[in-house]
Amino acid sequence: MRNVEHYKKGYYMPPVVDMSWAYKDCPDKAPVWCSVDLRDGNQALIIPMSLDEKIEFYKTLVAMGFKEIEVGFPAASETEYEFLRYLVEHDMIPDDVTVQVLTQAREHIIRKTFEALQGVKNAIVHVYNSTSFAQRQQVFRMSKEEIKQIAVDGAKLLQRLTDEAGADYRFEYSPESFTGTEPEYALEVCNAVLDVWKPTADRKAIINLPSTVQMSMPHVFAAQIAYMSQNLKYRDNVVLSVHPHNDRGTGVADAEMALLAGADRVEGTLFGNGERTGNVDIVTVAMNMFALGVDPQLDFSNMPKLVDTYERVTRMHVHPRQPYAGQLVFAAFSGSHQDAIAKGMHFREEGNEQYWTCPYLYIDPHDVGRTYDSDVIRINSQSGKGGVGFIMEQNYGIDMPKKMREDFSYFVKSVSDHKHQELKPAEIYDVFEQNYLNVGWPLKVENFFVQKFGGQWIGKILVKADEEEVILEGRGNGQLNAISNAICEAYGIEIDNLVYSEHDLDRGSDSRGIAYFGLTDKQGRTTWGAGVDTDTMTASIFAFITAINRMEGMAQRVRFRHLTSDPAAVSEFKAIAGQH
Ligand SMILES: CC(=O)SCCNC(=O)CCNC(=O)[C@H](O)C(C)(C)COP(=O)(O)OP(=O)(O)OC[C@H]1O[C@@H](n2cnc3c(N)ncnc32)[C@H](O)[C@@H]1OP(=O)(O)O
Ligand SMILES: CC(C)C(=O)C(=O)O
Ligand SMILES: [Mg+2]
Hints:
Blueprint: E1 32-35, H1 37-43, H2 51-64, E2 68-72, H3 78-89, E3 98-104, H4 107-117, E4 123-130, H5 133-140, H6 144-165, E5 170-176, H7 183-197, E6 205-211, H8 218-231, E7 238-244, H9 251-261, E8 265-268, H10 282-290, H11 303-314, H12 335-349, H13 372-375, H14 385-396, H15 402-419, H16 425-435, E9 443-453, E10 456-465, E11 468-476, H17 479-491, E12 495-504, E13 513-521, E14 526-533, H18 536-549, H19 554-561, H20 567-579
Parallel strand pairs: 1-2, 1-8, 2-3, 3-4, 4-5, 5-6, 6-7, 7-8
Antiparallel strand pairs: 9-10, 10-11, 12-13, 13-14
Helix pairs in contact: 2-11, 4-6, 6-7, 8-9, 12-14, 14-15, 17-18
Bound molecules: acetyl coenzyme *A (ACO), 3-methyl-2-oxobutanoic acid (KIV) and magnesium ion.
Residues 40, 43, 73, 75-76, 104-106, 109, 128-129, 139-140, 150, 176, 212, 275 line the site of acetyl coenzyme *A (ACO).
């Protein structure tokens, strides 16, 4: 690719550290989560949130279980300032929630921040300055010592103003642009800040290491975190935090590996909103833990509502493929996936598995408030019989014989293919109803009755065929056999093989049953039909006639034979049949 020579590695490998953490497979408990939606997320929006929108988002975060929330940058704007004041004046900060505010390490900005904090019981004051080589060289044009001094002066001012306020605020320091900073120098600056604060077990300090711009592969970032974790002073009294961004698309991997490498806390946002490519998506990191059986201590049980709130207040969109939350992340359109999912669901319903092991579905969609009906099996031209059968069974209680399911699914696929559209369950049912159920053309059953004479049944059926009412008569060793013989003999239909099954559709005294017939002619061609009625025999005859009607050339055959009956016989038939 052109211009590759413009680039080189912008990060620094840390000195050799203990890498035994790399053998851990996953974190064994949730980290401290800090939402930075209302600050880092907000500062990256085209239109930052209004006061009302921030309030709604804040309430959502509290309800989800966040205990640390960066509520803004109070010195940035009136809305930011007013928002914190609103929370204080309306007593909206629960005792177990700590609000965090961000400030540059500049005196007037820090003072303004403290003004905004008046009356807050639990607060984290988060101060930052850039420490990277590029920022020292190009933005600040300062030496390492001078940059360290900005951090130390900021730390001292935080301490002084907190003492003056008689408050008990906790402190956080970020060497901003950490990923572009020499690790040894970042360590020196952080330790200098910690020497000012002298954190104790009762009042720990937070050292937050941001990948302000992501520059390396995740294991390199994690090794940088391990280096800091293993060398920071006061380590037992330091909460080591990470703040991954997503420039390389690996924010989640950075957070997860950093947790293995020693981080205790993660700053991020819902769905990864934030500067440029965003902050790390806390939903994904937390749900990844959940899916491994570790309680993330955050509630995502109504993900659709969360998505709705987020999209409304930020004016951003959650991508349909966004892990755990996107519209399509549980959807299976393709046949083989649908088949395995439908079988996996049955396996689970049979009580076989304590844990979630359903193929193709990483987690149970119900756990994030999604449904199997509309979210999982979705039908288009890529779908198969397993999926179509699943929709018909789940939504309408229709459990077709296996071969009929296959026949119907090819029919449905071709409808979807020609329309070039997904088919929703109701549309699939319409296809079934119009083409496979109680089909009354070219033959329509009007009435029938059967009687036993000796060892044989005589069946008579009144059908409407080509606008004529015709009585057909046949004999057989069973009731259905007598009726089917009547129809086949009348129209010269030879059946080589038939498949029949039936089941209840509803429960209750006037419950309906559904019958299915598959008829194979001498040429080996099979047609399928279904019939529904409160009477099983009637349902079966409807199913049989439907399968007959769906045979190739049946309309011509009926027209060609043009059978007729004496109208008086038809009236007499109707009278007799009415008594049965
Ligand atoms: C990675 C991050 O997300 S960091 C957070 C970024 N977020 C924001 O900036 C949003 C809110 N910010 C703001 O509203 C404004 O930037 C304000 C109100 C804080 C400050 O505005 P301004 O006074 O206009 O200053 P501006 O932000 O442009 O900063 C420029 C000056 O501050 C210095 N500076 C920037 N960051 C820092 C810092 N963290 N500590 C100390 N000095 C800093 C710059 O070197 C520059 O100095 P100079 O005037 O001597 O050239
Ligand atoms: C203020 C800091 C933590 C930040 O947002 C970043 O570096 O990305
Ligand atoms: Mg950031």
